[in-house]
């Protein structure tokens, strides 16, 4: 029944994380595990994708680790987790037995890790069950991982395109603003020269003609040529 339920979860899943969460939730009563993780292996680099009791991130694995000798779509079972000290951080309360199953092999590997608090927590039938599940998982989980990577790459590309578009828009707006501002600024300079000439001429008139009418006109117009100049 658990295998049938897992196959339904695999078929219905649209994202790798949803698949992982669905499987771990369904397998909890069947395996009785204390912690679980999905690990990606690529060029001897290990990275935790999802884990029930640990944060995602890099996982240091010694060169002599049995994890480096995984057989294709098969499980490794250990009753002594001291042989896999690199997995200690996956279980907060510690674990004494573990099953590691390769569920995908292509340009990289994907491994499921299930840990149990008891030394005899996993039996041989658990290994057979996970081996059967791995065969069904292989195609789907690799496909979902690829889709996830493509979606992430597309998101990053769209973000870069948005930034480029914003940059082009800003440059265009700046260009459209700079042109009229430059035109106005240059004309203001010319206008200032013309006004200065007019003020100079008026000042000369004031010096040449000390007429009462001119003083009254200046007062009516509220002009102070000295301060303007």
List keywords for this structure.
5 helices, single chain, 229 residues, alpha+beta, 6 strands
Protein model, in words:
The mean pLDDT is 76. This protein has a six-stranded antiparallel beta sheet with strand order 3-2-1-6-5-4. The radius of gyration is 39 Å and the shape is rod-shaped. With 229 residues, it is an alpha+beta fold. The relative contact order is 0.10. It starts with a helix and ends with a helix. α1 packs antiparallel against α2 and α1 packs parallel to α3. A hairpin with a 3-residue loop joins β5 and β6. Helix content is 55%, strand content 17%. The chain contains five helices and six strands; from the N terminus they run ααββββββααα.
According to DSSP, the number of beta strands is: 6
Which whole number gives the mean pLDDT?
76
Strand order of the largest sheet: 3-2-1-6-5-4
Order of helices and strands: HHEEEEEEHHH
Which shape, going by the Cα principal axes?
rod-shaped
Low-confidence stretches: none
Secondary-structure blueprint of this entry?
Blueprint: H1 2-12, H2 16-31, E1 35-42, E2 45-51, E3 57-59, E4 75-78, E5 97-105, E6 109-116, H3 124-208, H4 212-221, H5 225-228
Antiparallel strand pairs: 1-2, 1-6, 2-3, 4-5, 5-6
Helix pairs in contact: 1-2, 1-3
């Amino acid at each position: 029944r658990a295998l049938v339920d897992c196959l339904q979860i695999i078929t219905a899943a649209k994202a790798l994380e949803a698949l992982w969460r669905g499987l771990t939730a369904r397998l909890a009563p069947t395996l009785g595990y204390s912690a679980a993780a999905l690990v990606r292996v690529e060029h001897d680099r290990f990275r935790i994708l999802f884990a029930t009791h640990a944060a995602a991130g890099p996982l240091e694995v010694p060169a002599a680790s049995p994890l480096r000798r995984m057989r294709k779509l098969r499980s490794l079972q250990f009753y002594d987790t001291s042989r896999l000290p690199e997995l200690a951080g996956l279980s907060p309360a510690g674990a004494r037995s573990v099953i590691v199953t390769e569920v995908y092999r292509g340009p990289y590997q994907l491994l499921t890790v299930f840990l149990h608090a008891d030394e005899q927590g996993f039996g041989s039938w658990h290994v057979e069950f996970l081996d059967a599940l791995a065969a069904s998982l292989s195609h789907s989980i690799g496909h979902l991982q690829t889709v996830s990577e493509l979606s992430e790459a597309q998101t990053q590309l769209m973000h870069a395109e948005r930034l480029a578009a914003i940059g082009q828009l800003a440059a265009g707006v700046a260009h459209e603003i700079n042109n009229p501002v430059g035109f106005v600024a240059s004309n203001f300079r010319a206008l200032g020269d013309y006004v200065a000439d007019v003020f100079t001429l008026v000042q000369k008139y004031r010096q040449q003609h000390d007429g009462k009418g001119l003083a009254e006109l200046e007062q009516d117009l509220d002009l102070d040529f000295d301060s303007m100049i």
